[in-house]
Task: structure prediction
Amino acid sequence: MAEENKVKLHGMWASPYVKRVEIALKIKGIPYEFVEEDLVNKSQLLLQYNPVHKKVPVLIHNGKSICESLVILEYIDETWKNGPPLLPQDPYKRAKVRFWTSFVEKELLENVLLVVRSEGEAQEKAIKVVFEKLKLLEEGLKDLFQGETHHIDGENMGILDIVLCSLFGAHKAQEEVLGVKFIDPEKFPLLSSWVTAFTEVAVVKALQPPHEKLVMVYQFLRQKALRPSAAGVEVKEGVYVTSLSRSSPF
Amino acid sequence: MAEKKVKLLGFWVSPFVYRVIWALKLKGIDYEYIEEDIFNKSPLLLQLNPIHKKVPVLIHGDRVISESYVIVQYIDETWPHCPLLPQDPYERAMARFWADFAETKLLHTAWLGLCARGAEREKAAKLAMEAVEKIEEVVKGKKLFGGESIGYLDICLGWISYWLPVWEEVGSMQIIDPIKFPATSSWMNTLLHHQVIGDNLPARDAMIEYFQKRSKDLYESDWFKDIIRLHLHP
Result:
């Protein structure tokens, strides 16, 4: 019984999707065992627990596996009702959180990844799209926060805070690698103060890899996408990824 | 709050809009339907959904909700009778997981197959079939994803029972082979014979005509060429 109730999280230190789940578990005060996965040589256990996507994060609880970070976050909120809530109680507020979470996931994150993986004209186009989406989010925050200062701490971080944090918690590393400043306090004052606030939360700080490691992650993602020859990628990638996946920051 | 007036902004052939229609009908919620021409968007739509400028949009009193998944869950939480999502958190997680899977791996690929041509169409159809293989395993042995009654996952995947056969016909492709996927085919049949679903579907002939034109227009558009490149040749 005790063994079944244990929570395990299969993840990888550099994955922002895994980071989301860790933040949620820590906010709720749920003890868990972290199982580091080598994403190049995926373990039998991972393939068994996530046969559909073969990805991390995977949460194991009561002998069952739950996959996809956003699904896991709602599962955590619904299963452990004693800790701070990750979603508001009111259905309309919940709808707004889900709407903006979906927006950050599909409209912002996808386009930031495009910026990371492209260069030249394609990258310029992608950067322009990211700024357009950030502008929409900034406008949306006015409605979401309703003019009140959004105070965040380890007690009230919710799904939207967590998802945005997993994207822009590393904004300084993104700036350094991409040479573009997305979290600009002059252009996006609400968003910038929000990002600053959640990067200061103790739980988030404790889980954030050091800046140099994050720079390495973004450089790796960029090089992986822009390498011309597949053969070249295999050899170099094998070395690079192995060193990336084995070099935990803690 | 539940007594306030409900309106739904929709487009006659959108499978996303029908998710909301089915949810409202299953719960017996009265609503006013407002048809929107998505090719000539009204000031109302642009005001209510400035972010995505899309339907469906649900208006409940002074509340505005968009995105079909968000709307269906809002309906389920605001009118808790005849629950759509299961009670158990793990079962809820499974419903959400498979809804997301079907959206990204089946709906998008089937749509790409409809609008692409030649080798790209074949590739998209093949990816769609691989997705159906997984769905087949989930629905095996069940009457409906929701068990004896229609649930959240049936609503989210309901388009498969009616839109997908139309896309298969228009795109001359077969994604759901009834011999290969007997459980899925049986589920499709059960759904179509359910009063709420069967009585709330767009006219098939009109759909065929609409998707024939849409497929042609998209195939020729630059925007679509980018999408194909992104999704079929990553």
User: Anything to note?
Assistant: The CA atoms of residues 5 and 62 of chain A lie 5 Å apart.
